[in-house]
Design brief:
The chain has one domain: Helix Hairpins (Orthogonal Bundle), CATH 1.10.287. The chain has helices at 2-27, 34-55, 60-81, 89-98, 100-117, 123-150, 166-181, 194-224, 227-233, 240-248; strands at residues 155-156, 190-191. The chain is an all-alpha fold and 257 residues long. It has 10 helices and 2 strands; from the N terminus they run H-H-H-H-H-H-E-H-E-H-H-H.
């Protein structure tokens, strides 16, 4: 029973993780309260760390580094939520946001490493690239929120950033980050400063480059699959072994052919 559960988890872990990330993106705007949203993000990061580490058993050294980075992110969140000095609130917020950036970056890289080291193209490897894509959007959203912390006029929003609740502001930046990464650009949120424009431009280039790399990776994985496996997927085609038996004859030894 336990082996069956472990096998099912290994086959569908990134599909489950992608659904969990999508659930977070849908739930974050309706959760009232800054600390609830941030702690939900930390829980999501912890689950993502566990899934990514399980998918990369060779990450002996990076396991500790990932845990340390996640603990730093949790510490930054706690400092921001329970800050006792209002004059240092901006610094606490900056630590909270920027400590999650390396965690998201390493996790996205780990998912792509899992796909690259895979021998076959599977549903789970496809969803691993989707999960990494969503993590990149969350990564840039954290950077944009850090910009707003120090310069509230960095973006043109439907409602001023100063008057916007923290959980809705984070949802706005996640939305802007995702549509920028996908190079959609609806135009309802616009970068207003030079730094914000440069970051948005860099993210758009990253999104295009990501799609190109993933497509090339999938094509290479499919073309490198053994021909026998592809023939096994199509029962109508004879395998290479059956072709050799037919050419040699059923009554002859393999060494005589």
């Amino acid at each position: 029973m336990s082996r069956g559960i472990e096998r099912a988890f290994a086959e569908w872990r990134f599909l489950s993780l992608t659904l969990l990330i999508c659930a977070y993106l849908l739930a974050a705007p309706v959760i009232v309260g800054k600390w609830q949203v941030q702690m939900l993000l930390e829980v999501l990061l912890l689950v993502t760390v566990l899934v990514t580490v399980s998918a990369n058993p060779g990450w002996y050294r990076l396991r500790r580094a990932l845990v340390v980075l996640w603990l730093m992110s949790v510490a930054g969140t706690l400092l921001s939520v329970f800050s006792v000095r209002p004059d240092l609130r901006q610094w606490y917020r900056t630590v909270e946001l920027l400590t999650s950036v390396p965690v998201l970056a390493v996790l996205a890289a780990g998912m792509l490493a899992f796909v690259r080291h895979g021998r076959r193209l599977t549903i789970d490897s496809i969803f691993a690239t989707v999960a990494a894509y969503l993590l990149l959007a969350l990564l840039f959203a954290q950077i944009y929120l850090c910009l707003i912390t120090w310069e509230p006029n960095s973006f043109t929003l439907p409602v001023d950033a100063v008057d916007r609740p923290a959980h809705l502001l984070q949802s706005d930046m996640t939305y802007f980050s995702l549509v920028t990464l996908a190079t959609v650009g609806f135009g309802d949120i616009l970068p207003a400063t030079h730094t914000a424009r440069m970051l948005a431009m860099f993210q758009a280039v990253t999104g295009q480059f990501y799609v190109a790399v993933v497509v090339a990776l999938f094509v290479g994985m499919y073309s490198s699959q053994p021909r026998e496996r592809r023939q096994d997927d199509d029962p109508g085609k004879p395998s290479a072994a059956s072709g050799r038996v037919a050419a040699c004859g059923e009554n002859q030894e393999p060494g005589e052919c």
